[in-house]
Design goal:
globular; single chain; two-stranded antiparallel ribbon; 10 helices; alpha+beta
């Protein structure tokens, strides 16, 4: 069963905006939050606002022919904020443990497939949908914040102060970004379209541990 971080440990006392603090510390349960994200994603898809791309790998270490699904999915402000900054949301799940974070990530990734399918039906890509779905269903697929470095760098520092991230001298992870675009990045796993074999760079394998330790990866 998915848990939440205690409101005491998910320390937002440095946040001057009382209304926003209440939103982040009174967020829905993890399961309800996932449902809200999926609902917003499907609405955005039905409005033609979900952007899809079949993205070739540019990593020099990657084998040839690799590509993955990349989608930008707009959601409502409150849902975005609770998802990435709230005590029941994405980073909070990784704060509980890397495995809790991976379970939450998988649930959202799988839940977003219908929105991707609807967006594809409106604006098809040059590859069959089956490949997009395979890319999303592979183990290393993930969501995150679109243009994450800009979003975090523009947010005030040292606003979110859970003890482990403070002790580990986290920088970006202790910010609570709320960028103007309010878009989720969905990135599938790189696969070889001919063989279906997935690939991930070794340095990406530590993502869950980085989020656990510092709230940013």
């Amino acid at each position: 069963m998915m848990q939440t971080v205690s409101s005491k440990e998910w320390d937002l006392t440095a946040l001057a905006d009382d209304e926003r603090r209440a939103r982040l510390l009174n967020a829905p349960s993890p399961r309800e939050l996932i449902e809200a994200v999926v609902k917003d994603a499907e609405h955005s898809a039905s409005q033609g606002k979900v952007w899809l791309r079949w993205e070739p790998a540019i990593d020099p270490a990657a084998p040839p022919e690799l590509a993955r699904l990349w989608a930008q999915i707009p959601v409502a402000e409150g849902v975005f904020d609770q998802l990435f900054n709230g005590y029941s949301g994405y980073r909070a799940q990784y704060y509980l443990s890397p495995s809790d974070g991976l379970i939450f990530n998988r649930a959202i990734v799988d839940g977003l497939i219908p929105a991707v399918k609807e967006a594809y039906a409106i604006t098809p890509l040059a590859v069959p949908f089956d490949l997009l779905e395979q890319s999303v269903r592979e183990a290393h697929s993930k969501i995150w914040i679109f243009k994450d470095q800009d979003a975090f760098d523009e947010a005030p520092e040292n606003i979110l102060n859970p003890p482990r991230w403070v002790a580990n001298q986290a920088t970006r992870g202790r910010r609570i970004p709320l960028p103007a675009h309010l878009s989720i990045d969905l990135k599938g796993t790189f696969i070889n379209p001919m063989t279906g074999k997935p690939w991930v760079h070794e340095y990406k394998l530590d993502r869950a541990e980085d989020l656990y330790a510092k709230g940013f990866a």
